Amino acid sequence: MRGARPPLRDGYDRIGPVHPYLAFAGVLLLDMVILLVVLGALSALGDSIEDALWPGGFDMIRGL
Q1: Residues contacting residue 12 through CB under 8 Å, at least 6 positions apart
Q2: Considering the entire predicted model, what is its pTM?
Q3: Which residues contact 59 (CB under 8 A, 6 or more apart)?
């Protein structure tokens, strides 16, 4: 078994070949993209339900 690498100066262990802050930023970016996709899907679903109840008018979701 190989010896463990010493921690970085700020006390964190490396996550693979990258600094932990870069890995944390990647996870945060992935979470934000997932959240935007979910919110977009909910907005589109709500817009289609609104069109079924009150047809006509300006569609803001489809206008974007």
Answers
A1: 19, 20, 21
A2: 0.70
A3: 47, 51
